[in-house]
Design a protein that fits this description.
single chain, mainly alpha, disordered C terminus
Length: 301
């Protein structure tokens, strides 16, 4: 079924546009399927090119245009930006055929966004802080685990320091995930595309690795700005670390179990695992762990 749908989406422009419109429309009724429109946009762009992808976007944004006519411009801007970002990332991957290039371009875009928000839209930081406080208070009212007001205020003050970086990172990660799903869907339809192999061969470049210490040094100049930048800047290295891990697990007969255990640990110890992956990806830029520790012939699961 997935393959048949993919073939129709790739071959029939009107079919892809109609599906994207339906999913986008239903998302306004609180159905969590609006993201499928982004996946379809990315798939069409990857396979048929940027112009075809833009044509799908033109249909997918029609419900948002209706909201704009009703005066809700925030929803319109949010929807359009998300679709355009998924389209832009798909264009990058189509032209470079490199996940590393896509990750680096995404990180640069994220860093630029953080700088623009910091200097030209500081009110967005205040809005984010108020939204986080509202969500935290709502959670506190329904949660079985109560937190004292002083602890909650301390936690909110800590989170607010890097709210901008988290927002930019979440936006990039969600759209990278949509593009990855689209690439997987494309691999089910088009021969010659091996997403597993592509993801296992992501290795950072030493030039990017040399720039990361400069971002860390910037913390001494402007801690608020560069801490938010750092959150986004480490993203490619985290993915490189994950790539090493998946490449290593592919050489083991019980590699699937190894990955399940790892991601289980990730859920409970996320900050420490992210630091480990970042350091692994950063060191791999210089040492090439695959060449040293991972055999050339990867065992197929």
């Amino acid at each position: 079924m997935v393959r048949r749908w993919g073939e129709q989406v790739i071959r029939r422009q009107q079919y892809a546009s109609t599906l994207a419109l339906i999913f986008a429309f239903l998302s306004f009724f609180n159905l969590p399927i609006g993201w499928l429109s982004s996946v379809i946009i990315a798939l069409v762009t990857l396979q048929n090119g940027p112009q075809r992808g833009l044509m799908v976007i033109a249909w997918a944004i029609l419900p948002a245009v209706a909201m704009l006519c009703l005066g809700n411009y925030v929803i319109f801007i949010d929807v359009v930006l998300h679709y355009l970002l998924a389209w832009a990332l798909a264009v990058m991957l189509r032209r470079s055929s490199s996940w590393l290039s896509l990750l680096n371009y995404s990180a640069l875009l994220g860093v630029f966004s953080v700088i623009v928000i910091h200097y030209f839209a500081p009110e967005l930081q205040s809005w984010l802080s108020s939204q986080i406080a509202s969500i935290a208070k709502e959670y506190q009212s329904v949660s079985m685990f109560k937190i004292s007001s002083s602890d909650m205020d301390a936690w909110l003050n800590y989170i607010n320091l890097f709210a901008t970086g988290l927002l930019v990172l979440a936006t990039l990660l969600s759209n990278l995930f949509f593009v990855m799903l689209a690439r997987w869907w494309q691999s089910q339809v088009v021969t010659g595309i091996n997403l597993q192999k592509e993801c296992q061969e992501v290795r950072g470049h030493y030039v990017a690795a040399l720039l990361l210490p400069l971002v860390v040094a910037g913390l001494y100049l402007n801690s608020l700005l560069f801490f938010n930048i750092l959150i986004v800047a480490i993203m490619p290295f985290v993915f490189c670390g994950l790539s090493i891990l998946h490449a290593f697990s592919a050489t083991k007969k019980n590699g699937g179990i190894f990955l399940i255990v790892f991601y289980g640990i990730f859920v409970f110890l996320a900050p420490y695992v992210v630091m480990f992956l970042t350091m692994s990806g950063w060191l791999d830029s210089f040492l090439n762990f695959r060449k040293k520790f991972i055999v050339a012939n990867i065992v197929e699961e």
